Amino acid sequence: MLPNALSIIRIILTVPIVIALLKGQYLLTILLFLLAGITDALDGWIAKQFSFQSRLGSILDPIADKILLTCTFVSLYWVGILPLWLLLLICVRDVIIVAGALGYFLGEINGVSEIIKPTLISKFNTVLQIGLVLFLLLIQFTIEFSEWHQIVFIVVATSTALSGADYMWLWIKKFILQESKK
Predict the structure, then answer these.
(1) Contact 90, 73 (CB under 8 A)
(2) What is the pLDDT of residue 11?
(3) Which of the ends of the chain has fewer CB neighbours closer than 10 A, N or C?
(4) Domain range for residue 162?
(5) What would the pLDDT profile of 31-86 be if each residue is shown by its tens digit?
(6) 161-164 contact pairs (CB < 8 A, 24+)
(7) Are 17 and 64 in contact (CB under 8 A)?
(8) 29, 138 in Cβ contact below 8 A?
């Protein structure tokens, strides 16, 4: 299906984004990152508009987002633009999400399949993380907004921590529900 193909394109776009970022080609990085963002918006819209939602898509789309954002954040750290503490916080949140999802789906009762839906705070956090990437790339061209970076870091860190806690709570509730059905 087209939405899944767009998610795969987003994964593939991660490679030239990382290369451009590591070479300091910030304008090219911005353009490629925006193209990846368009594929993200389109895959969701097409899936909903034409009822192409699937379990594979519900898994592939967030994986594509994780690959794109994680590789971009690691590269931003590598070139000295993103602080280590924020990179670690983002990675810990992602580990919580992935570990919880794996634990839940490996323990599914009777092989019941469920479409994974991101929480509202997770969607908001993803928007903030994408905004962070674009902000950090854009301030490479000007020093006017560079004093705002600490505030932006704190906002993204807060939403990341809240999103991680929200997912932990979600996985705990699902685990308790699963155990009570046994």
Answers:
(1) yes
(2) 95
(3) C
(4) 2-180
(5) 999 999 899 888 888 888 888 777 777 778 888 988 999 999 999 999 999 999 99
(6) 161/89, 161/93, 162/121, 162/125, 163/93, 163/119, 163/121, 163/122, 163/124, 163/125, 164/92, 164/93, 164/96, 164/97
(7) no
(8) no
Q: Which amino acid is at 176?
A: I
Name the residue among 17, 6, 7 with its Cα closest to residue 70: 17
Q: Judge contact between 32 and 68, C-beta under 8 A.
A: no
Place of tokens 């009762």: 109
H helix and E strand count, the chain: 6, 0
Q: What is the CATH number of the domain that holds 97?
A: 1.20.120.1760
Six token digits for residue 176: 């308790």
Burial 48-84 (b: 16+ CB within 10 A, else e): eeeeebeeebbbbbbebbbbbbbbbbebbbeeebbee
Phi and psi torsions of 77, nearest 5°: -65, -45
CB 94 within 8 A of CB 151: no
Over 50: is that where the pLDDT of 149 sits?
yes
Provide the domain count of the chain. 1
With vertex at residue 160, the alpha carbon angle to CA 159 and CA 163, rounded to the nearest 5 degrees, is 80
